[in-house]
Every structure is written in structure tokens, then in C-alpha cells.
Design a protein that fits this description.
The complex is a heterodimer. Chain A is mainly alpha-helical. Chain A has twelve helices and no strands. Chain A has helices at about 1-10, 15-30, 65-100, 105-120, 120-135, 140-150, 150-165, 170-175, 180-215, 230-235, 245-275, 275-285. In chain A, α9 runs parallel beside α10 (about 230-235). Chain B has a domain at about 110-290: MetI-like fold. Classes of the chains: A mainly alpha, B mainly alpha.
Chain lengths: ~280, ~325
């Protein structure tokens, strides 16, 4: 594991840049654990102060210190992304490994369901959930719903690897040695699909945080919970750009761009690393 | 030919299953919720006007019959399908008493036009440039293009659309930033009307293209840079086949197969992006309709938009899937 990491940093500039960008955002988000103010409260400071020594990122029209507000927002959004990614990874690993190993009708049924989930557009369904749940749609429920839709593409990737593993020598040894199916899958096959799981983890986070931003800027989430999307929502609803409170828009947008590019670079460089042909080309072999 | 029909038949079955599951999900989500549409509508109505208790009681009875909420859920489900097949999901509240399906039908051409054009432009530009970049890895122009693609591609739709809005709305106001056509133009088959539509669609389309092209570019570049090292390409180069033929017939054609699958898978996401784009640029499409419906608490309109959009996306994926055998002869003979 450590060697992989070292190789990636040494040969892959994109990975290093991505790691620095994501690291920066994670540290910034983690600062909110030491936040002196409760980010959900409003009118705690003088509104509309430009960035200064006292308020690094300025304050918004709701009287919140933007530095701590954004720090909490990024923490919540990152936690949201990780929750969706972990939950949907569990589904995709289970479906992918089982489908590839069992084959036959199990495979056909699972992949049929899989293809249905790929084709159903998630956005109208999420809006529908908001429509009926209204303000009881909290982050965790939203994460749960998104996780139910975020697995099918990755399950197919995992299945394609599992299909190849099924006919390898060690699988047959394990089966003859009397290992149960669940043990074969978890102890023998799971390690082989871990690189895919990590790469898709980042992609899934990009997808879910992006969707959360989308839902929030439309006002379709719990707006009192600071996230990347709700910060933009409030900035828009106070017409921040119009009244000249540019830092309320510019700083979050810059941080969002940093987060997304960082996560994307990590996902992309890991994907490339998984493919031995492109890895060798990069190492100059 | 026989195997192609078999392939089409399997896809049709899948299409029906997707539509069935998607529409059933919309039904379940809306009907298993604790919120009663009848009471919501009544709240809306009585908030705006003074109704007598008798009028409220009769409206409640009429609405209960309209939404069928008094019956057991299985009957409701069955009735829902019957009404859907007749294309009647009840009147919308937003523009009472226009049927909500009519509102959707009015908005659908706008979304379809915007979505089809921008997706086609994105797909063609991204793949063409990606293929050239993969085939000429040392070209400075394509290297720079790749860096731009990496920087723009992961940014959420909303942020890109918003940045465009700020640039063209505040800093350099040359393009219309809101609406489907200019207010002073009368709809009809005139040059000014069509020109106005095109002018108003530039920014929404541009935001969709900007977000979309990077993914195709990067995917195609990665695919092509692997294919270029394959034996048959080296063989063709040694055999003196012209570069054009190699790129067109050997490289792009092979790389297009996974890209076409990816297109089918991306369509659902592209639709989500359109909703945001329409909202940001105030475009009169189905996405704006959905958002208005939700904000207004318009039950039947939201149901209508969801079912139509799920069906439309499933149909689009089906059409892309049918193109598959044209590119990949293995699908035909499978």
C-alpha cells in the first residue's frame, strides 16, 4: 500500500497536485471542529464586512463569519460525500462480486436490475423525495437515497474483474479447501477489486457533492444546515453579486473549484494507475 | 438480421422494465409519504380566497375523487397507470385549469432542442479532439487543451452556469442571459423569432458544452492512447496505410464503442444538468417547470414532469443502444 502511494507521488504529477488540493480543503474543513461560533446561528457579527484581518473571508449579509461558515460547510459536504461513497461502495462491492462469481441466473437478474438503475435519471426522483418530505429531508436521508442510485456503474466494473478472478487457480484452491462462498468473496476476491473501489470512491464523492450543490442551490434541502450548496443558495437569495458582496460568491466558488479539481485528479490518476499499460508508459518503460 | 432483431427485442424489454420501475418509483414515493395531496391543494386554495365551509367540503370531495386517495393503494396504483396511459394526470395548480400534461408538452420542445444540440456538439467535439490528442500525444495545443479539460470538467454544472451568468450578465453584457426568446418578438415562423431563440440558447448551451466536453475528451484520449500502441495499428502504419485512414477507420471506430455506451449512461446526468441550466438562465423548459411545480406544491405537475422525464431519458438511452450494432459488428452476430 505504501509503495503504491510512493510510486504515485513520484511518477504522477496529477496525483501529487490532487493530493495537495484535497489535503488543503480537508484541513480547512477540519478547522471547523475548533470553530468558536455555531455556524447555524445568524446575525452574530456585523453583516457585509469585506475580508480583513479580523474576518479573513469577510462576513455575509446574514451576519456570519464566512471563514467559519465555509469551514463548517465544507466539513458537512465532505462528510456527506464520504457517507454516500461508503454506502454505495458497499452495495456495488456486494452486487459486483456476487454477480461475477455466481454467474448464471443470479448474474443475469442482478445485472438486469443494475441496468435499470443506470437508466433511471436520479434528479427527478430526488426532487420528488424533497417534494414529499420537505424539510424532514435531512442530509443523512439524502445521502441514503443517493447511495441507492450511486452503485450500478461501479458494480459493473467490479463484476468484470470478478469474472476474471473466478477462473484463477487460487479461487479453485480456496473452494476445494472448503471455503464458504462469502469467505472466498471477502478474503480472496475483495483485495483485487480494492483499487477500483478507491478510484470510484473519489468519482462517487464528486457526483454526490455535485448533486447536493445542485439540490441546495435550488432550495431543495434543509437550508439551515451549512453545506457548499446552501452557502451559495443564501448568497443568491441575498443577491450578493448585485449588492457588491463579491467575497460571499467568489471565495466559495474558488474553494469548490479547488475541491472538485483535487478529487478529480486523484480519481483520474488512480484510474490510470490501475491500467498497467498507461502506468508503464508513464514510468518510461 | 435475425440476431439484430433479437438484440432489439431484448433492448425493448429492458426499456419497458426501466419505464415501469421508474414510474412505479415516482408513484410509491409520492403515495407512501405522510403528506396528503388533497389537504395540500386545499391549503393552497383557501390561502388565496375566502371559501365557505361547504365549498371547502365539496372541493375536498372532488379532489379526493380526482386524486383517488380514498381507495386502497393497489387500486390507486392501477388507476394511476390507467390515467398515465391516457396521458391525463389531472389539472395543474400552477396554471389552473390547464392539464399538467399540456404544460409539459409545451415545455418539452425547448428542453429537447437544447439538450439534443448541446449533447451532440459536446459528444462530437470532445471525441474528435480526444482522438486527435491521443494520436498526437506530443502536440502542444492538445496538451494545453487537456489541462483545460481537466480543470473545467469536474466543476458542478451550477457553478459553471453561474460563472457564465456573472461574466455575460455583469462584466460583459453582450448576450441575453434570461428567457427563451426576446419579449418583443412574436412567436411564429419568422427569421427574427428563430434568431432570437438561437441567441437566447447560446449561453445555456455553452454552459452544457463546457461542462460536458472534458469528460469525452479525457475518456477518448485515454482510450486512443492505448489503441495506438496495439499491434494492428503498428502493422497498418508499417504497411503504409495513410494516417487519415488509420485514425478514422482503425482508431476512432474502435474507441467509439465504449464511448457510445458511456453516452447512454451519461444521459440521465445530462438531464439533471439541463434542469439547473434552465433554472439559472430562466429557460422555459421542463426543468424550470419542475422547479416551479415543487415550489408551488403542484402535485400533478411534479408527477407529470417526473414520469415524462424518466420515460424520455429511457427512450433516449434505447435509441443510443440501437446505434451500437452499426459500430460494433460483434453485437450483430452475437
Amino acid at each position: 500500500m505504501f509503495a503504491v502511494f510512493r510510486d504515485l507521488i513520484r511518477y504522477n504529477l496529477e496525483f501529487t497536485i490532487g493530493l495537495i488540493l484535497v489535503g488543503f480543503v480537508v484541513i480547512f474543513a477540519a478547522l471547523s471542529f475548533f470553530s468558536p461560533v455555531d455556524p447555524t446561528l445568524i446575525y452574530m457579527t456585523i453583516p457585509d464586512q469585506p475580508p480583513s484581518g479580523q474576518y479573513w473571508f469577510g462576513t455575509n449579509s446574514r451576519g456570519q463569519d464566512l471563514f467559519w461558515q465555509l469551514s463548517a460547510a465544507f466539513k458537512n459536504s465532505l462528510i456527506f460525500g464520504i457517507t454516500v461513497a461508503v454506502l454505495s461502495r458497499i452495495i456495488s462491492i456486494a452486487v459486483g462480486l456476487l454477480s461475477g462469481y455466481a454467474g448464471g441466473w443470479v448474474d443475469r437478474v442482478l445485472m438486469f436490475i443494475n441496468d435499470i438503475f443506470v437508466a433511471v435519471p436520479i434528479f427527478p426522483i430526488l426532487v420528488l423525495f424533497y417534494f414529499v418530505l420537505r424539510n424532514s429531508l435531512d442530509s443523512f436521508t439524502l445521502a441514503l437515497i443517493m447511495a441507492c442510485f450511486g452503485w450500478p456503474f461501479d458494480a459493473r466494473l467490479i463484476r468484470s474483474v470478478a469474472l476474471g478472478l473466478k477462473h484463477r487457480e487460487f479461487t479453485r484452491h480456496a473452494v476445494f479447501a472448503g471455503m464458504s462462498t462469502s469467505k472466498v468473496l471477502l478474503e480472496e476476491h475483495l483485495p483485487y477489486v480494492m483499487p477500483i473501489v478507491f478510484a470510484t470512491f473519489m468519482n462517487n464523492m464528486l457526483w454526490s457533492i455535485g448533486l447536493e450543490v445542485t439540490m441546495a442551490v435550488l432550495g431543495f434541502t434543509n437550508l439551515n444546515n451549512p453545506t457548499i450548496g446552501t452557502v451559495l443558495y443564501w448568497a443568491n437569495s441575498h443577491s450578493a453579486m448585485m449588492v457588491g458582496v463579491w467575497w460571499w460568491i467568489l471565495i466559495p466558488v474558488v474553494l469548490i473549484v479547488i475541491t472538485f479539481i483535487g478529487l478529480f485528479l486523484l480519481a483520474m490518476s488512480m484510474n490510470e494507475y490501475i491500467d498497467p499499460r498507461s502506468r508503464l508508459r508513464r514510468m518510461g518503460a | 438480421m435475425h440476431s439484430y432483431l433479437w438484440f432489439v427485442g431484448k433492448r425493448i424489454l429492458q426499456l419497458l422494465a426501466v419505464i415501469f420501475c421508474g414510474v412505479s418509483a415516482t408513484f410509491l414515493v409520492t403515495h407512501l409519504s405522510p403528506i396528503d395531496p388533497v389537504e395540500q391543494v386545499l391549503g393552497r386554495l383557501s390561502a388565496r380566497s375566502n371559501l365557505s365551509p361547504e365549498a371547502i367540503a365539496s372541493t375536498r370531495a372532488a379532489l379526493t375523487e380526482l386524486y383517488g386517495t380514498g381507495q386502497p393503494i393497489v387500486t390507486q396504483y392501477f388507476n394511476f397507470w390507467m390515467r398515465l396511459l391516457r396521458g391525463d394526470l389531472g389539472p395543474s395548480l400552477l396554471a389552473f385549469p390547464t392539464p399538467s400534461m399540456e404544460l409539459v408538452a409545451r415545455a418539452l420542445p425547448w428542453t429537447l432542442g437544447l439538450l439534443t444540440t448541446s449533447t451532440l456538439i459536446t459528444f462530437i467535439i470532445g471525441n474528435l479532439f480526444g482522438a486527435l490528442a491521443g494520436y498526437n500525444p506530443d502536440n502542444r495545443f492538445f496538451q494545453a487543451f487537456g489541462i483545460v479539460a481537466i480543470a473545467v470538467q469536474p466543476i458542478p454544472y451550477y457553478v459553471v452556469a453561474f460563472i457564465l451568468l456573472v461574466i455575460f450578465g455583469f462584466l460583459w453584457p453582450v448576450l441575453p442571459i434570461s428567457g427563451g426568446f426576446a419579449m418583443d418578438v412574436r412567436p411564429g415562423l419568422t427569421l427574427t423569432y428563430i434568431g432570437s431563440i438561437l441567441q437566447h440558447s447560446i449561453l445555456p448551451a455553452l454552459s452544457l458544452v463546457l461542462v460536458g466536453f472534458g469528460g469525452w475528451f479525457l475518456g477518448m484520449r485515454a482510450l486512443v492512447s492505448n489503441i495506438v500502441n496495439d499491434d494492428y495499428v503498428t502493422y497498418a502504419e508499417l504497411g503504409g496505410v495513410s494516417r487519415r485512414t488509420i485514425v478514422d477507420a482503425y482508431v476512432i471506430r474502435n474507441a467509439m464503442v465504449p464511448q457510445l455506451t458511456a453516452l447512454a449512461m451519461a444521459l440521465g446526468g445530462v438531464f439533471s444538468g439541463t434542469v439547473i441550466t434552465e433554472q439559472v438562465f430562466n429557460y422555459p423548459g421542463i426543468g424550470s417547470l419542475l422547479i416551479d411545480g415543487v415550489n408551488y406544491g403542484d402535485y400533478s405537475l411534479v408527477l407529470a414532469v417526473s414520469t415524462v422525464s424518466i420515460t424520455a431519458v429511457a427512450l433516449a438511452i434505447f435509441i443510443v443502444d440501437l446505434l451500437h450494432p452499426l459500430l460494433d459488428p460483434r453485437v450483430r452476430t452475437e
